[in-house]
C-alpha cells in the first residue's frame, strides 16, 4: 500500500495496476492516481471544479482530486507534495478522436467559473514573443560556447529562418486579433497544453489541461500531418475533421487562429530542443528542412483544403509563403 492513502478517508484500493506515468491503483470501480504536484491549494481547488464539471456531463475519465483527512487536496510526505485523484472509464473514450475532442470542447465551454491559474486565452502573441526571446538568448549562449557544439554549427544558418517565420506568425496574430467574425465556438474551453495522442489514452490528466481557445487543440492535432506530403488530405485528418465538424462549427476567425498557430513553428523549436537534449554530433538538418518544405506547401493550401473562401472571409495571404 502506498503511504499516501493513510492521509485519505477512503477505502484503500488494494490492487496496483500501473507505476508509470504515476502510481495507479484500483478498487475495480475507480482508478486512483498518485501525482506529485508543485502548485498551490487554490489551484488544486480549480482543478477539482473543472473535473467535477466534466463528471456532471458523464465524462468520468477526467481525473478528479480528493481531499485528505485535513480537508486539503495537497498532501506532504517528507519533502514531496502529492495529490490523490480518482476517475473511471467513460464512453467518450470509445468515440472517434474528432467526436471526443468536439464533445470535450462543448462541455468545456459550459464551465461556469472563471479560470485563473491555467488561462492562456488571448495570450498567444505574448507567449510567442517570450519563446522567441528565450531561444535567441539560448542560441547566443550555445553559439558563443567554446568549442561550439556540432549541432549548433549546423543550425547557425537555419536559425534566422525559424526566428523570421516566428515573427511573421506574431505579426499575423496581430491582424487576426482585429477580426470580428466570431461565433459561439470562439469561447474558451478546457484544452490540452499540446495535443498529440492524449485522446487515445483512457484517462484525461486534469493537471495537464489549460484554459484556451479551441483552435489550439485543432492546430496541434493537424500540425504533425502538415509535416507530411499528404497534409490535410491524409485520411486520418479527413476523418478527424469530418467528425469534429459534425458537432462543432468553427468560425472564420477560429480557422484564422488555427492557421496563425500552425504558422508559428513550434515543431521546429521542438526539433532544436531534441538537438540540444541529445547533443547530436550530426544534426538531422536535412530531415528538418525536408519536413518544412512539406509543411509550407500544406500551409499554402490550408484554407482551400478546409473549405474557406479566402475572397469572402478576408483571409490574409502571405506573399513569402505563396511564392
TrEMBL record:
Residues forming coiled coils: none
Protein name: Spore coat protein YutH
Lineage: Bacteria, Bacillati, Bacillota, Bacilli, Bacillales
Amino acid at each position: 500500500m502506498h503511504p499516501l492513502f493513510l492521509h485519505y478517508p477512503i477505502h484503500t484500493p488494494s490492487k496496483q495496476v500501473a507505476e508509470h506515468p504515476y502510481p495507479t491503483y484500483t478498487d475495480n470501480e475507480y482508478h486512483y492516481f498518485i501525482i506529485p504536484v508543485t502548485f498551490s491549494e487554490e489551484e488544486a481547488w480549480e482543478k477539482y471544479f473543472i473535473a467535477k464539471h466534466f463528471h456532471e456531463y458523464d465524462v468520468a475519465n477526467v481525473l478528479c482530486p480528493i481531499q485528505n483527512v485535513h480537508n486539503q487536496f495537497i498532501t506532504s510526505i517528507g519533502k514531496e507534495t502529492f495529490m490523490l485523484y480518482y476517475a473511471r472509464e467513460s464512453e467518450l473514450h470509445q468515440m472517434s478522436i474528432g467526436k471526443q475532442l468536439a464533445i470535450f470542447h462543448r462541455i468545456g465551454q459550459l464551465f461556469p467559473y472563471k479560470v485563473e491559474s491555467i488561462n492562456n486565452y488571448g495570450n498567444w502573441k505574448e507567449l510567442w514573443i517570450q519563446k522567441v526571446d528565450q531561444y535567441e538568448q539560448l542560441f547566443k549562449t550555445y553559439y558563443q560556447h567554446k568549442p561550439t557544439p556540432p549541432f549548433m554549427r549546423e543550425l547557425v544558418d537555419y536559425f534566422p529562418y525559424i526566428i523570421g517565420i516566428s515573427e511573421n506568425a506574431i505579426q499575423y496574430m496581430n491582424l487576426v486579433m482585429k477580426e470580428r467574425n466570431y461565433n459561439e465556438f470562439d469561447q474558451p474551453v478546457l484544452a490540452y497544453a499540446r495535443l498529440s495522442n492524449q485522446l487515445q489514452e483512457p484517462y484525461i490528466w486534469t493537471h495537464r489541461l489549460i484554459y484556451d481557445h479551441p483552435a489550439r487543440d485543432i492546430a496541434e492535432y493537424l500540425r504533425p500531418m502538415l509535416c507530411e506530403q499528404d497534409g490535410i488530405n491524409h485520411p486520418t485528418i479527413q476523418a478527424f475533421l469530418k467528425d469534429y465538424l459534425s458537432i462543432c462549427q468553427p468560425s472564420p476567425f477560429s480557422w484564422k487562429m488555427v492557421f496563425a498557430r500552425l504558422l508559428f513553428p513550434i515543431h521546429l523549436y521542438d526539433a532544436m530542443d531534441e538537438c540540444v537534449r541529445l547533443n547530436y554530433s550530426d544534426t538531422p538538418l536535412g530531415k528538418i528542412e525536408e519536413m518544412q518544405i512539406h509543411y509550407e506547401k500544406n500551409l499554402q493550401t490550408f484554407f482551400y483544403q478546409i473549405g474557406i473562401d479566402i475572397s469572402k472571409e478576408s483571409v490574409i495571404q502571405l506573399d513569402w509563403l505563396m511564392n
